What does this fold into?
Amino acid sequence: EKTKFEFWYGLSGDLGDRVQDACKKFNDSQSDFEILCTSQNGYDTTLQNTIAAYRAKKQPAITQIYDAGTLDLMLSKAFIPAKQLMADNGYKIDWNNYFGGIANYYATAAGELQSFPFNSSTAMFYYNVSAFEKAGIDFKPDTWEHVEEAARKLKAAGFECPLGFNFDTWPLLEQFSAIHNQPLATKANGYEGLDTEVVFNKTKFVDHVKFFKKMQDEKLFVVKTKQLGMDIVPAFTSQTCQMIQTSVADHGTVGKTLPEGVKWDVAMLPVWKGTERKNSLVGGASLWVMAGRPAAEYKGAAAFLNFLAQPDMVQWWSTVTGYIPVTKTGFDAMKANGFYDKAPYKGRELAIASLTYTPTSENTRGIRLGSFTQIRKEVSTSLEAIFMQNADVQKELDQAAERSNAILRRFEKTYAGQKLN
Ligand SMILES: O=P(O)(O)OC[C@H](O)CO
It folds into this structure.
């Protein structure tokens, strides 16, 4: 009889289907285990459901937790560290095979990986090259000055939504801050202490939001959200909007969905002219093995995680999604195959170039804030007030910062005395 175990994941839509494919591949590859994979329809609900299930002793063996939930999981102690799981189950893993920048995000200060890197990403700037040509734009959207100029030309050429944006803080606030070398919070974005405070209301981010607001007032940048009927990725693939900032993870979906013959490309996120660009942040999610399951399930979990880390699986997963390969052997295999030489895959190498643009620093290592899901919500609520109700930018961001700091203080209290790493 096969040992069954559960895997909960947050991806949905096309990317969710690809997770199901990965599960099927594993189940077909062996006859000892059966992985049961269930989408929780969103990264934030996966985090919530996992924690609730753990309390009720109904947790899955493996769960997919996004970047923003990393510290919550780390401090919960509700998991089995990656290295321990593999050693306990007889697997020899070359931990150095994971890209350093990615692995560090999920490791303790001593470098011990807590979870398994799986779907790593960064944000990219997508643009419709055919529309650029029609509008007579002969430069790349590499700076925000160029993006503004491109937006004006697109508008003049009759395009209704030169740039579509939503209230996702990940590209707008988090990635923007990193590449512009701005802190999001004190104490190295939380890495150096739970007594961290957000500072996004005092950095270049404030002027950046003001710029977005001005562009929105001139109808050059247009809000596109699910609530309003269409989020930014469908807005781009339906050619409603000609520029968006979103995850490289959407690269596969965009390529499949845009009609044939439409030229498109990606660039690194733009910076303001004169900025010394820094590396962007690792996004996406990692796989955590939850504590408290029967030993037999851990054998299956280890087998599955080992299966995913094989170069051919890394290559397959990266190809069909857009996520960057998380291991050096996976990346080398793709390069050797000439994967990145072909359009539109050429653009995907830019994601790696963006992530490794400079060595990481306090402002670019990552974000290590507790309850970061709620903090993101506070910021998006303030962005919604700014862009939908014309609220004052500085005032809204100040209030969002105040509410975020209250969340951080509660988190600090919950984990008082616990070492961060
Ligand atoms: O869309 P993804 O999977 O690349 O994730 C983006 C962010 O990191 C989510 O927090």
